[in-house]
Amino acid sequence: MKLSVVVPVFNESSNLDVLYHRLVPAIESITEDFELIWVNDGSHDDSLKKMKSLAGQDSRLKWIDLSRNFGHQKAISAGIDFASGQAVVTMDGDLQDPPELIPELFEKWQSGFDVVYARRTSRKGEKIYKKVTAFVFYRLLRWISSVDIPTDVGDFRIIDQKVARVLKRMPERNKYLRGQIAWMGFSFGFVSFERDERHTGSSAYSFGQMVNLALNGIFGFSKLPIRLLWWVSGILMFFTIGGLLFEIFDLYPLPQSGIILSLTFLFSLQWAGLALIGEYIYRLFDAQRQRPDYIVNETNCT
What is the CATH architecture of 3-221+291-299? Predict the structure, then answer.
C-alpha cells in the first residue's frame, strides 16, 4: 500500500460525505494505491452508520469502531496501528484540515523527509482565547522542553512507515503524538496552509480536553515543573530561615499578620508540590496497569 489516510471521527456524521468526496479526488491525483482508515471514537450520532455505508461503496475505505470514546490521540494511534501504507497521513475529520493539501504533503515526503507537518498560518473561525492560548502554549512548550517540538502544527501531517513503526512500539499511556514524533529525531519539513472553519457542527474538543493534552505535552517532555519546584522551595526556605533569625535575635520583629501570611504561602506551596509529585506518580501508576490504549469493537480492516 502506497498511502494510508487516518481520520479520527467523533460525532462528525454531517461532515463524512463531504470529507469522502473531497479526500478521494485529492488522493487519486497522486496514487491509486491507497486506503482510508476512519476511526469511530465512541460517536453518539450515526457516524459509524455513515462509515459503513461509504465503505460498502468503496473497498478502499476501512473503518474501526472503538468500544467507547478513548480520546483523539488514542483514536489516531489506533488508525496508525492498522495502517499498511508506506506513508501515513493523519488529519481531523471536520474539514479544517483541507484534503487538497495531501498531494503537497505527499510530494514533500517523496523528496526525502520522514515527517512533513502541515503548519497553520491562520486559524479561521476560532475564538480569540483559543488562538492566544495555542500561540502561547506552543512557544512555552518549545522553551521548556528538551525536544524540538515544532510550533503551530496540529495532527495534520504525513509520516513515513518507519516513523509509524516506532510509534507502535512506544508504550506511552498519556499520548502526545506531536511530542513523540519530534522526540524520534527523524528528518522533517513543513507545508504551510490557512486552516479553515469547521464545515458543520462545533468542536468536540472541550476546554478540559485541551488542558489535558497540554499537560501531556508538559509532563511528558519537560523536567521544568520539578526543577521550578526545587528552586522556588529553596528560595522560600532561604527567606523563611532569614525571617526566623531576625525574629529570634530581635533584629527586626515581624508583625503577626506577616508571619501568618508567610506560613499560609508556605503551606500552599507544599500542597502544590504534593499535587505536582502526585501527577507524576499517577502517570507511573497508569503506565504500570498496562491496560490497552483502546478497544476495538468491530472493524473491516484485515
Answer: Alpha-Beta Complex (3.90)
